[in-house]
Amino acid sequence: MLPSAAMKPQSFAYAAPESVDDVLELLGRHGADAAVLAGGQSLVPMMNLRLARPGVLVDINRVPGLGRLEVRDGQLCLGPTVRHRDLETGTGPGELGHLLARVAGHVGHLPIRVRGTVAGSLAHADPNAEWPVAVTALGAVLVLASRSGRRTVHAEDFFDLPFAPVRAADELLIEVRIPLPGAGWGGGFAEFAPTAGAFPTAVVCAGVAVRDGVVAGCRVAAAGLGGRPVRLPGVEAAAAGRPAETLATAARAAVDDVRASRPAAGSQHLAALVAALAGAALEQAAGRATSSASSAGGAGWT
Question: I need a labelling partner for 189 at 20 to 30 A (CA). Which of 24, 39, 85, 251 fits?
């Protein structure tokens, strides 16, 4: 562990462990005084502004195997140093891979995507970011490791308050598990941001399963409605059993979902924006699900 010299952030010690056990030992020893460095695209700017002031920076980039991206037990499993760019280039499987590439392509600018990590974005828990809403829509499970063992948390339960997920100070987000959908499934993603690469105002991600031209399953989540990504139950209910070619009209129910989440004055514009984004995401998802079902001769929902 090396001491720091004078610089923009508050002084900190730097550690570059070479095993998961060493990472967990450091996190267990230093607790809330430690911060994990994977891509650093959120952490380092916050440190430079002194919004984050870790006493110890734990760099996990030298730990072998943490960049794994593999299919296992019916799930796509991502290690904590999988970069946005790894998914943007289409290394994920099938229709799920296509959706993840689309999500990754909306994250910041290219230099950020090359260095930043999916797990880092999730651990940062920006309520308007792309990955938290995507894993919520996809029903992902997050694996947290500490010296005392491992536990799993569903994505919907992981994001508690803005920038404050349920990860304890001594835990490392060591794996993201996304269920693999079957044939007849498609995903869609849409966001509104003031400029390309800027922080989005609202984001919607959808997954749709189609059987015999009819929606057999649907999950939709949105960001921008508060301190965490949320499912849109009204949209999901309106989509169920609907012909795939008319699915976009189910997005009208997003207005009621937004009003339920944001009853305060001024939510009318946001409701219209989320409904428009939901319509675009559902239209994408339905089109890809229909094509997937036709090419595979069936439908599935995992």
Answer: 39
Out of 3.30.470.10, 3.40.50.12280, 3.90.640.90, 3.30.390.50, the CATH code matching 186-295 is 3.30.390.50
pLDDT in tens, 127-155: 999 999 999 999 999 999 999 999 999 99
Residue ranges of domains in the chain: 13-59, 69-178, 186-295
pLDDT at residue number 268: 83
Could you tell me where the beta strands, DSSP code E, fall in 66-112? 69-72, 75-78
CA–CA dist 201, 199 (Å, integer): 7
Could you give the angle at which helices 94-105 and 267-296 cross, rounded to 10 degrees?
150
User: How much is the pTM?
Assistant: 0.92
Topology at the third CATH level for domain 69-178: 3.30.465
The pLDDT score that the predictor gives to residue 296 is: 52
And the tokens for 92?
């994920």
Q: What is the pLDDT of residues 32-50, one digit of tens each?
A: 999 999 999 999 999 999 9
* CATH class of the 13-59 domain in this structure: alpha beta
Selection from 72, 63, 70, 74 nearest residue 86 by Cα: 70
- C-alpha span between 208 and 181 (Å, rounded): 10
36 contacts 24 by C-beta, under 8 angstroms = no
